[in-house]
Amino acid sequence: MKWLAAIAFVIIVAPANAEVYVPKSHNSMGTVCVERIEDQGVANIYRVTLVISEGLQEVSFLGGMAVCVYLDPGTQRLALDWPKFDWNRTDHGSENSIHEKSPEISVSMKPSGMIAMEICSKRDKYKAPHWLLRYRGGKVSCDDES
C-alpha cells in the first residue's frame, strides 16, 4: 500500500492538465489526505510518520509534503510517530532513537469519502519539536493550537 501513497503524492503536485491515476478499487475505498505544514524552520527536516491502524500502513513526511492514501471503509486509527529530539544526540531520526507518538484519532471512512487533515508543528518547553494531527477546516485547526 505504500506505493499507493507515493502515487497519490504525484497526483497532488501534478499539473492541472495531467492524467489522474485512480486505483481500480477506488470506488469502494475512502481517501485520507494529509498535509504537513511547512513551519519555516529546522523542524522541516525531521521525519514524521503517519501510522494507520497500528502500523498496517505508514507514510513519512517532511515539512511541506502532502499525501493522499486510499483506505478501506470502516474505522481507521491514525497517529503520528517521530524520533524524540534530544539536544545531546547527533543521530536524530536513526533507528536507535527513542520515538514519541501523538494521541490517536479514529476516523470513520466511507466508500468514496474524503477526509482532509494536517500535521501541526508544536514546541515543548525545551523548544523540541512535537506534532499533532488535526482535521483541516475543523473546529480545532493547527492555527488554533497554542
Summarize this structure as a short list of keywords or feature phrases:
globular, Immunoglobulin-like, mainly beta, disordered N terminus, four-stranded mixed sheet
Helix content: under 10%
Q: Kindly state the mean pLDDT as a whole number?
A: 75
Give the ordered list of helices and strands.
HEEEEEEEEE
**Main structural class:** mainly beta
Shape: globular
Largest sheet: 5 strands, antiparallel
Low-confidence stretches: 1-12
- Say what the CATH topology is: Immunoglobulin-like
Tally the helices: what do you get?
Answer: 1
CATH architecture descriptor: Sandwich
Roughly how many Å is the radius of gyration?
Answer: 16 Å
Approximate strand percentage: 35-45%
Question: How far is the N terminus from the C terminus?
Answer: 35 Å
How many strand units? Answer: 9
Number of domains: 1
CATH class: Mainly Beta
Structure description:
With 146 residues, the protein is mostly beta strands. It has a single domain (2-14, 27-138), classed as Sandwich (Immunoglobulin-like). It has 1 helix and 9 strands. The strands form 2 sheets. Strands 2, 3, 5, 6 and 7 form a 5-stranded antiparallel β-sheet that branches. Strands 4-1-8-9 form a 4-stranded mixed β-sheet. The N and C termini lie far apart (35 Å).
